[in-house]
Amino acid sequence: MSRPRLGVLISGRGSNLKAIIDAIAAKRLDAEIAIVISNVADAPGLEHARAAGIETEVISHRGHASREDYDRVLVRALQARGVVLVCLAGFMRLLSPAFVDAFPNRILNIHPSLLPKYPGRHPQQQALDDGATVSGATVHFVNKNLDAGPIVLQREVAVRPGDTADTLAERILAVEHALYPEAIRQVLEEGGSG
Questions:
Q1: Which residues pair with 86 in a beta bridge?
Q2: Nearest 5°: phi and psi at 137?
Q3: Residues belonging to the active site
Q4: 136 in Cβ contact with 156 (< 8 Å)
Q5: What is the DSSP string of 101-134?
């Protein structure tokens, strides 16, 4: 039986992509990454994919008439490779309804807060500014609203006295690396819908 095919979208260093690759290699996740797509040509995360023998493609968001036009190009690239679950791993683009509708309940994102608290950008700083004693990471389904889709898994991370946004982000990222592959496995076992 063939393994479920994942498509991973990145824009940067790809540390969560690397965690997914490692989980597959260690047989903690029964899936195959069909393609890694970046909207940034020099995204360091592309090297993780290339080193693992995974197909990569750079599809710049520039030069498209609209966000929807760009997203349709992404959708075609993913569908052409039989992707059943899309994993956003530091993909710094908001997805349009054209993308979300193409993969209903089949797009996952990881966010460095305990959603619904602190959606959007700079959640670690938001938590510090709010005086939170606990933050964490959330894997959720993507819908048409920012960081608002159904939650798959969450894990708490304590906010320590003297934390900065960077120190908190570093500890949350370590939790993300374990949480994301676990959430992907759970979604695939449950049939991929939220």
A1: 7, 107
A2: -135, 150
A3: 111
A4: yes
A5: HHSTT-EEEEESS-TTSS-SS-HHHHHHHTT-SE
Using only C-alpha atoms, the chain has a radius of gyration, in whole angstroms, of 16
Whole-number Å distance between alpha carbons of 194 and 187: 8
Domains of the chain: 1-103 (3.40.50.170), 111-139+155-194 (3.40.50.170)
- Mean pLDDT for 150-165 is 98
Write the pLDDT tens digit of every residue in 60-81: 999 999 999 999 999 999 999 9
| CA atoms within a 13 Å half-sphere pointing along the CA-CB vector of 176 | 27
Q: What is the pTM of this model?
A: 0.95
116-137 pLDDT, tens digit per residue, is 999 999 999 999 999 999 999 9
List alpha helices for the chain, DSSP H: 15-25, 45-51, 67-80, 97-102, 123-129, 165-189
